[in-house]
Amino acid sequence: MHTLPATRIELAAWLRLSLAPGLRPAALRLLLAAFGLPEALFAQSPDALAEVAGEPAARAVLAPPGPAFDGQLEVVLAWREQPGNQIVTLDDPAYPPALLTMPDPPPLLYIKGRLDLLHTRAVALVGSRSATPQGIEDARRFARALSAAGVTVVSGLALGIDGAAHRGGLEGVGGTVAVIGTGADLVYPAAHHALAGQIGTQGAILSEWPLGTPARAANFPQRNRLIAGLVSGVVIVEAAMRSGSLITARLANEMGRDVFALPGSIYAPLSRGCHRMIKQGARLVETPDEVLEELGFVRRTANHAGRAAKQAAPLDQARLRVSSGGTALRAASAAFADTRPIGPAPQPALAPDSQRLLAALGHSPTTLEILAARTEMEDAALHAALLRLELAGEVTLLPGGRFMRAHHD
């Protein structure tokens, strides 16, 4: 999508309004609806502006720009000249239409990457920064499937679920959009520098914050409102009871967007936020197709299904190997039990590799292959650690060769 960029004078007016202290986007939208473009606002009397949006908004609009404004304008113009960078104003035809349904759309958007992704069908995937391995896998799998169906995956570039959602979105035709809580010239967290570079090239990065704005806790709820505004639905993958993801879900619900949540183990702390949202009316989903169907999006084609089946076949064969391995593990466990002294034995602290394996196991039944991929442990070390955990009562071997963390009353 190509539009004519705002002229220097037009951009200066929009920038001045976006930087005006105390001018809320909702009040600015009222003023623009009443008087037209930003230059027209500056020509109005205080009383005329106050009658539409109140005295604080009138004072904010008419306050002269600060001494640093000219320098800020030059920085913005220079940033816009860099390849892939765009600044879209509220009156621009390229402004994301979904955001116009919000009561308080930002007057100025800083965009790096593909502007067309802000005009597509979109779903947000959000969740905990401290996600479990299972949550990471679920987020990436859902995002990959949604993107394969042509749906753009939106998230917030945070660690954990957000990062996994972006990576999955990049794997399909739908792509991904990162809505960030800093200036568009910064990357937060620093660990996602490479991921942000990939999104800025293949997807899109969106910010309403002035260039140079650092990460501040107060910015992220406002970032979450943009995530909710851009999409048709929000999927919560993992969330604690007090979570920014739940803020996103609440904002999405207030905007009339659909809210979905993945259920989890009743023992998993990061399932509690999802379960709470389900109790409050979020739709429980177990597959990406359920999300697509609920939103009325076209389901994946037969070709996609065929590829998925081919990808699943090696996994089914792996489960057969794990099943036989599970029998061997039970036999080894019985033989080891025969050599143990009678009576209770003290429980030693878990070895580091056992602790790592237990963390990788999470709270859901998991196959040997998945554990090997998560821990990157050699087969012999992995089997030995699983055996130690099983004998210590920390892991249970399930039918089909899957393993699950034991839950103690």
Automatic annotation (TrEMBL):
Domain DprA winged helix: 344-401
Gene Ontology annotations of biological process type: DNA-mediated transformation
SUPFAM superfamilies: MCP/YpsA-like
Smf/DprA SLOG domain boundaries: 86-295
Pfam families attached to this UniProt entry: DNA_processg_A, WHD_DprA
Family to which the UniProt record says this protein belongs: Belongs to the DprA/Smf family.
Protein's name according to its UniProt entry: DNA processing protein
